[in-house]
Amino acid sequence: MRWPEDPANQQRPNLTYRSIRVVAREIVQVWFREVDVVDNENIPSEGGAVFIAWHPSGLIDPMLMMATLPGKMSLIAKHTLFKVPILGTIMRASGALPIMRSSDVKSNGTDSKKHNENQLSLVAEAVARGGKLIIFPEGTTHSESDVKRVRTGTARIMEMAIEQSEEEGLAPPSLIPVGLHYSEAHTFRERAAVIVERPMDLPPLPERSGDAAADETERRTWVKEVTSDIENELKRASHATSSWQNRHLIWRARSIVHAERSRASVDAISKPSYAESVLGARRLRAGWEYLAKHDSERTTEIETRATAHFENLDQLGLHPLDIDAKPEELTAKKYIANNIRWLWSVSWMLGIVTWGAILGTLPPYYANRLLTNLAIRKNASQAALGSIKVYSSILLFPIWWVMITVATIWMLLGENSAVRELFASHWLLVYLTDIPLIVVGMILILFWPLTGRAHLVLQANASRSWRVIRRWKRWKDDSIEWDTLRNEQLAIARILTSLGDEMILPGDADWQNPPLGTDDAEVVRMR
């Protein structure tokens, strides 16, 4: 993908940060097969910024935001993370800022509160002077489908930063919600989208009157209101639902609506980008929530029908796309073409690419898998498992590449190596023994990850072709009542599409973004 460029009117991030960001981007590109960044033009060109997001995927969330958001980002993280070997060093080098909550301070209540205020003040000062921070206001990672209760720390940082920027005549800081969306965050080679929402329009700070007690009460009220707005904005940006079952239902319904609109526009049914899928899910969720409030009987009827249909597909081992993409007539031409594409990819994989990828990635992969299984036995959460996978990969893969490079150099160029003697016996290969060790080492260090990346591309092409081949075989299964399934799916899709056409939804030309702290469903209107 093409990463967003750093702002031209701001100081360029230092070399250490840029180097860490390059590593983060490489990991993100390997972990996800598709990453979309949408609406990054919403980021103001002046002033500091606090980027807020929900926190469903542990270490993956901050890494994805660091990789995709332009400029130098500082991460607000619990102070205990900075004590973790290597991770702490990386976080400090990347500009992360430690924060200790008042509950973590072993002292009396007054000292604890003062300590917390001092830490928040230091963070707010960085924001007021143009810094960009990443904060997860929930305060912890989780695997729930809805946003957890938001803590007041983010609102208090904004209060202090706004006040300081006003006192010093600086550009006001912005508070920007970010929607993090994953097809499956903890599964290798899935898809992700980062949606940068518009900056929140915060209410003005209460003027200080000189009465300390009254001023403190007004500021607490302001912080409480802003914290509530932050929670509502995160729910809207994250497409929060009451359960993962509802979330999955919305995504499946979105897929059949996309197929129906493709048919109506006489376009071939194709897989949309993940960002397009996220917008489609946002539209369907907004319309569904609106209809559930104003016509609950109708939504219950549609939901019951759609759930029954998708459960039927699950029992048959089918996906909605299997129904929508089935051609009227099965010809051998496309089947043969996909077999050729699959053979082409596999033939390249059988060469040096896959052998290099196996030697360079298989041992650390299984070591990573062993650590993950140990964490599963200790009942680690899904978010923690995702962090363990990424964190251990950062450590294990480079260590293994160094080890295998040293071993390969010794095997090829060692004084007593049989391979070196073989090279020396050939008039052309003998020149290989004169290559400096440092050059061979640099080539090999790059060879392992590059062959791994090349293997991923070839594997993705082979997997796509193989899925089509398998789908083709399923389509030839006459025991499946394809016409019945297709008619039912078409009927559900047309009901949902007609409902959507009757409403003004996100993405429509006449859509008005909801006021601060208001859910999309609250501003949906019938045409």
Question: What's this entry about, in short?
Answer:
With 527 residues, the protein is an alpha/beta fold. It has helices at residues 15-31, 60-68, 87-93, 109-128, 153-168, 212-238, 244-264, 274-294, 296-316, 320-324, 332-377, 382-413, 418-424, 437-475, 482-501; strands at residues 32-38, 49-52, 74-78, 97-99, 132-135, 174-182, 190-196, 503-504, 525-526. It folds into 3 domains: 15-238, Glycerol-3-phosphate (1)-acyltransferase (3-Layer(aba) Sandwich); 244-329 and 480-526, no CATH class; 332-475, no CATH class.
Assign the CATH superfamily of the largest domain: Glycerol-3-phosphate (1)-acyltransferase
Q: Beta fraction of the residues?
A: 5-15%
User: Ends: how far apart?
Assistant: 38 Å
The shape, in one word, is: flat
Strand arrangement within the widest β-sheet reads 1-7-6-2-5-3-4
Molecular structure report:
The chain is an alpha/beta fold. The protein folds into 3 domains: 15-238, Glycerol-3-phosphate (1)-acyltransferase (3-Layer(aba) Sandwich), CATH 3.40.1130; 244-329 and 480-526, no CATH class; 332-475, no CATH class. The protein is built from 15 helices and 9 strands. The strands form 2 sheets. Strands 1-7-6-2-5-3-4 form a 7-stranded mixed β-sheet, sandwiched between helices. Helix 1 (15-31) crosses helix 2 and helix 5 packs across helix 6. The longest helix has 46 residues, at 332-377. 31% of the residues are buried. The model has no long low-confidence stretch (mean pLDDT 86).
